[in-house]
């Protein structure tokens, strides 16, 4: 129907270009209404004009005529068909092309409106088409085919009328017209259920005609018809439940079909005309299914060789393969006994066909390939006793080096797998072939394309093998016990490393299914499966894969998932641990890319997983075996040194958990002796592994390193005439470099409580004798090792410093210990202005250190503590001064590490809680510390790019209320803070270092006024200070400042609450006009704050804030307050009362309400 609509649309456009209506909703152009109300005379005139125009030789004009006639015919089919019929009868001498267009038009109308055409008109159309089709004895394809198509179209509805007409021209003893036979063939395709009941009689009439056919074209049409008849009968028999006569059986046609087969096969198949041979072969294939079983059995020894011989006589092989497939299908269906005798010739021919290249731009070659695969599948399903022979026959093409041949082999293996071949002896070679080609390297670099589009690249073949392995895993159920656990073998040899991802995915599917079904063979007996790698080797391999998750086509996540599935098989104790630990690791990989993953942190997580695993296994014998096998496995990574380096670390973690000191000594010896010392990555890996081992075996590790330093590895072997002297020297220097690095990592990883005593007497003594070297590699190793030793010492000092500070009484200063420890921390973190000491503290370490030192200094020097303290006042004052100075130096060293707005805020949040303390000395200490910190930040600020100081609003909001703090020292320090903050903002805005801002500089003069305790003076000063801030505050920082000031309305100090309100109102008067979108949120926050404000003066100031907002955004304020829940609570009422205090505002509100009432319904 869609096609009809499209045709109708085009016809309308042709006939009536100016009389169309367009649907704007759909864009579909409907035929004009005028078309439906045309007079009969108009229809006749238009139809005649179109019929005359059909003589045009232009194909586009002919197409438009057909479409236009169809449009008319769909509205008045009988009338238009009658006119077409009359036109043809009145003009018997029309040129063929003219008649063809008219006949095609009739076919189109009949096809679209067959249900609406009257029976008399149908009969006359059948008579016309039959006459047109057979008028000429010669074959005129276009004309006669157009007439034949009309008969086929009518036959879909009126098969009996059609057959009455056609059979009148299909009489016994007379050779029929070519197109009579062709029409019968096409009818059997288009109306299977209507035609099959006639076919027995048709075949009976046709058989004598076959011997009368002498010309190739008649032989061709009879062969084609027999092929179509056979296919129709097979379709009818396959769907008897839908058939009008369910009693029809195959044997109804068997004798006639066999008689026809005899003529086609014995007389016509050997024709010289290739087109006839193809058609006969196709017909023979279809007819086989309808032949009696005994007759087919007789013919198979002759039939199959005859079809196979056609491959040599024809270049196009699809029809031949299709026919052969049908013959094999029929033979297999009847369980032929003689088919086996043809097996050798069949396999030989099919092998040649399946190895032929496929031209994907030529569909017949693709179809031929698919038919050949079906042939293999059919043979495989029946030749059970020949399976080993078939299996052996595939080995020859498996050895071919061509990727095109290999691709065919993979397809054959896939077909064979579904018929049980892979379970046979030798089937493992087919599995190996698939896995081997899953591991192929890339043919081309990324972005490159093959010059030959038909080339089968490694990438294409590998992808095909990946998919085949997946299909074998998921769709061939009987293979599960072959692939599990055999596929585990391929995980560890390095030549299969690129196949790890598909292997793991298949094993995950197999293992998960067996585990969920509680199949006994899920549990692997490694003593029976002797060819499989041990549990220890499997675990090590999968962990190393996971350490490089995006290598080898992303094998990290599949390796971890498989490790979790294998847990019970690795060791029973691992299951619960890995169910908890592995999923979070997989989540990290899902959210990461090769670029975003922090490799160092990722390695640490995997080593931590290994350590937890070994602790959970709690079996020293198992752990010792793991260490030994991991050490032996090192050589498999000789071409992947990054992976080998990680494996050294795994060995180190394993030895750390190993209690057998002899095993530890032996594995350390193996690592040091077999390492490739000439490579920097491997030297580092060995050293890290040895260092990790030292965490539990410090004495043994140092002893082994000392022994190794005295071994033959450091002796320069004599060479003939000293020709190799230079090479030997280089090798020895590289071994020394490894040893030096080992000492550094031992110092870093050893227990802090043990290492300090060993650094001087063992470690530094061992490496100091190499400081005179001229070898660059050794120099680099020495520098790195010394850095690691320094870091180890730093960690020890930090740990002891923590302990010292925590041991001090938190509420008093009695010793200089605090400030000395803090000074030491500062020096360790940032010993000079130009050289911070690596490594930087982590975020957690920084947090803990700041928390520790701030807590240690917070409560000291309070008056209560001074009364209880017996320390001399001068001495106490000195300690207090030194401690605060040390604290400030430490804070500066933290800031020097990260001199950015974020770094500043990270420190500020630790001190922030002191700002609202009830203790004067704590507030003074915090604001003073912040003042020094901001001054340091300003002095060391180096703005390379124009960036924003995005913390300005938050910092001003917390510090500005302190300008009216009850304690004078706090007020003065707060102004200094604001002064520094505003100059920092100026620097970020791009102003030069020597730029002086008059407004900001005026803040220093305000400090003098802050000495006056008079509240009115303090608040006036705060207002002046706010005006300066308002001028220098960027718009994007205003919101943050306002909401921070809201927090200040409930400060612990009443003076600061009042100051917050003064600053807030001054700021809103100057800048509130640009905050309309935030007014509802601001009012909501004020509503909440009012509930906690006890100071009457501050409550009045909040009312003033509401009034200021109303003066700028009255409509928004009123709408927000009106929408408050009814009845209004006291705080909302307080806001309304504040608005009413201003007569102008109150009057405007009343006008707004009255106007609203006039246009609103009462309810």
TrEMBL record:
Location of the Maestro-like HEAT-repeats domain: 921-1150
Ranges of residues in domain MROH2B-like HEAT-repeats: 381-897
Keyword NAD in annotation: no
Gene3D superfamilies (alphabetical): Leucine-rich Repeat Variant
Coiled-coil regions listed: none
Keyword Repeat: yes
Keywords: Repeat
Pfam family, one: HEAT_MROH2B_1st
The MROH2B-like N-terminal HEAT-repeats domain, residue ranges: 70-288
InterPro entries for the chain: ARM-like (IPR011989), ARM-type_fold (IPR016024), HEAT_MROH2B-like (IPR055408), Maestro-like_HEAT (IPR048465), Maestro_heat-like_prot (IPR045206), MROH2B-like_N_HEAT (IPR056282)
GO CC entries: cytoplasm
Alphabetical list of PANTHER family matching this protein: MAESTRO HEAT-LIKE REPEAT FAMILY MEMBER 1, MAESTRO-RELATED HEAT DOMAIN-CONTAINING
Identification of the protein by name: Maestro heat-like repeat-containing protein family member 1
Organism: Dissostichus mawsoni
């Amino acid at each position: 129907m869609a096609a009809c609509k499209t045709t109708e649309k085009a016809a309308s456009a042709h006939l009536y270009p100016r009389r169309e209506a367009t649907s704007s909703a759909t864009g579909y152009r409907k035929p004009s209404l005028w078309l439906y109300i045309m007079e009969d005379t108009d229809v006749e005139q238009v139809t005649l004009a179109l019929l005359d125009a059909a003589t045009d030789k232009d194909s586009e004009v002919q197409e438009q005529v057909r479409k236009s006639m169809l449009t008319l015919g769909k509205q008045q089919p009988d009338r238009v068909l009658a006119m077409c019929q009359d036109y043809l009868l009145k003009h018997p001498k029309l040129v063929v092309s003219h008649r063809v267009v008219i006949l095609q038009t009739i076919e189109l109308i009949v096809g679209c409106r067959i249900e609406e055409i009257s029976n008399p008109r149908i009969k006359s159309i059948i008579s016309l088409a039959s006459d047109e089709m057979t008028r000429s004895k010669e074959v005129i394809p276009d004309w006669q085919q157009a007439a034949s198509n009309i008969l086929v179209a009518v036959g879909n509805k009126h098969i009996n009328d059609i057959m009455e007409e056609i059979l009148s021209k299909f009489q016994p003893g007379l050779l029929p017209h070519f197109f009579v036979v062709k029409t019968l063939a096409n009818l059997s395709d288009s109306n299977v259920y209507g035609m099959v009941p006639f076919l027995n009689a048709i075949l009976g009439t046709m058989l004598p005609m076959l011997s009368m056919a002498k010309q190739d074209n008649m032989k061709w049409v009879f062969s084609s018809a027999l092929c179509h008849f056979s296919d129709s009968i097979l379709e009818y028999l396959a769907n008897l439940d839908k058939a009008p006569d369910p009693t029809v059986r195959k044997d109804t046609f068997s004798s006639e079909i066999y008689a026809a087969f005899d003529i086609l096969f014995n007389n016509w198949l050997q024709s010289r005309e290739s087109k006839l041979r193809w058609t006969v072969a196709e017909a023979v294939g279809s007819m086989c299914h309808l032949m009696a079983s005994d007759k087919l059995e007789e013919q198979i020894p002759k039939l199959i060789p005859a079809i196979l011989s056609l491959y040599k006589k024809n270049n196009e092989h699809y029809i031949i393969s299709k026919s052969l497939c049908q013959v094999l299908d029929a033979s297999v269906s009847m369980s032929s006994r003689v088919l086996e005798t043809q097996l050798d010739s069949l396999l030989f021919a099919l092998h040649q066909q399946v190895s032929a290249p496929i031209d994907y731009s030529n569909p017949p070659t693709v179809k031929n390939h698919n038919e050949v695969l079906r042939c293999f599948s059919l043979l495989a399903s029946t030749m059970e006793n020949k399976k080993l022979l078939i299996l052996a026959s595939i080995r020859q093409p498996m050895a071919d080096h061509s990727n095109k041949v290999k691709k065919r082999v993979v397809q054959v293996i896939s077909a064979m797998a579904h018929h049980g071949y892979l379970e046979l002896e030798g089937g493992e070679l087919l599995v190996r072939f698939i896995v081997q080609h899953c591991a192929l390297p890339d043919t081309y670099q990324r972005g490159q394309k093959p010059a030959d589009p038909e080339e089968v690249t490694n990438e294409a073949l590998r992808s095909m093998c990946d998919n085949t392995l997946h299909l074998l895993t998921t769709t061939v159920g009987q293979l599960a016990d072959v692939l599990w656990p055999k596929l585990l073998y391929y995980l560890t040899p390095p030549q299969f490393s690129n196949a790890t991802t598909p292997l793991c995915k298949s094993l995950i599917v197999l293992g998960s299914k067996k585990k969920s079904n509680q199949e006994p063979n899920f549990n692997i007996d490694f003593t029976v499966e002797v060819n499989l790698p041990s549990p220890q080797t499997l675990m090590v391999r999968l962990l190393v894969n996971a350490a490089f998750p995006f290598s080898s086509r992303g094998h990290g996540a599949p390796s971890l998932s498989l490790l979790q599935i294998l847990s019970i098989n690795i060791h029973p104790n691992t299951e619960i641990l890995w169910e908890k630990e592995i999923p979070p690791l997989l989540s990290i990989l899902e959210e990461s890319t090769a670029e975003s993953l922090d490799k160092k942190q990722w390695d640490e997580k995997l080593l931590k997983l290994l350590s937890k695993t070994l602790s959970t296994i709690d079996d020293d014998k198992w752990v010792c075996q793991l260490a030994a096998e991991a050490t032996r496995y090192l050589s498999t990574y000789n071409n992947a040194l990054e992976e080998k380096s990680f494996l050294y670390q795994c060995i180190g973690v394993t030895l750390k958990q190993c209690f057998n000191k002899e095993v530890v000594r032996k594995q350390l010896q193996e690592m040091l002796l077999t390492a490739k010392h000439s490579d920097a990555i491997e030297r580092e890996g060995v050293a890290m592994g040895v260092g990790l081992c030292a965490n539990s075996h410090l004495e043994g590790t140092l002893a082994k390193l000392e022994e190794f330093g005295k071994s033959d590895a450091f002796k320069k072997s004599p060479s003939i005439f000293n020709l190799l002297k230079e090479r030997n020297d280089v090798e020895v220097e590289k071994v020394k470099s490894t040893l030096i690095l080992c000492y550094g990592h031992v110092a870093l990883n050893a227990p802090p409580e043990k290492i300090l005593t060993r650094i001087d007497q063992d470690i530094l003594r061992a490496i100091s004798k190499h400081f005179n070297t001229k070898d660059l590699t050794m120099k680099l190793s020495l520098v790195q090792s010394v850095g690691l030793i320094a870091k180890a010492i730093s960690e020890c000092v930090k740990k002891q410093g923590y302990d010292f500070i925590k041991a001090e009484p938190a509420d008093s200063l009695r010793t200089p210990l605090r400030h000395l420890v803090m000074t030491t921390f500062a020096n360790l973190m940032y010993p000079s202005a130009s050289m911070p000491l690596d490594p930087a503290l982590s975020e957690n370490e920084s947090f803990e250190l700041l928390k520790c030192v701030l807590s240690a200094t917070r409560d000291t020097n309070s008056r209560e503590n001074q009364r209880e303290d017996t320390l001399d006042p001068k001495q106490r004052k000195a300690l207090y001064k030194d401690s605060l100075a040390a604290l400030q130096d430490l804070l500066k060293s933290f800031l020097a590490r990260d001199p950015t707005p974020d770094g500043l805020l990270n420190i500020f949040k630790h001190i922030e809680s002191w700002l609202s303390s009830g203790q004067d000395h704590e507030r003074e200490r915090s604001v003073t510390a912040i003042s020094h910190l901001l001054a340091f930040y300003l002095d060391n600020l180096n703005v390379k790019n124009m960036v924003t100081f995005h913390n300005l609003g938050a910092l001003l909001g917390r510090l500005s209320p302190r300008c009216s703090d009850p304690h004078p020292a706090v007020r003065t320090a707060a102004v200094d803070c604001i002064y520094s903050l505003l100059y920092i903002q100026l620097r970020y805005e791009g102003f030069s270092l020597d730029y002086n801002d008059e407004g900001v500089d005026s803040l220093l003069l305000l400090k003098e006024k802050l000495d006056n305790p008079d509240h009115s003076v303090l608040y006036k000063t705060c207002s002046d200070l706010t005006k300066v801030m308002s001028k220098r505050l960027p718009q994007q920082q205003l919101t943050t400042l306002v909401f921070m000031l809201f927090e200040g309305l409930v400060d612990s100090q009443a003076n600061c609450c009042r100051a917050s309100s003064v600053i807030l109102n001054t700021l809103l008067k100057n800048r509130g006009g640009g905050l309309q979108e935030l007014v509802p949120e601001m009012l909501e926050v004020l509503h909440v704050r009012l509930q906690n404000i006890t100071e009457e003066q501050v409550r009045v100031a909040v009312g003033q804030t509401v009034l200021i907002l109303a003066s700028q955004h009255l409509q928004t304020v009123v709408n927000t307050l009106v929408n408050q829940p009814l009845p209004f609570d006291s705080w909302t009422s307080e806001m309304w009362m504040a608005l009413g205090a201003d007569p102008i505002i109150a009057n405007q509100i009343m006008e707004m309400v009255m106007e609203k009432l006039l246009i609103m319904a009462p309810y």
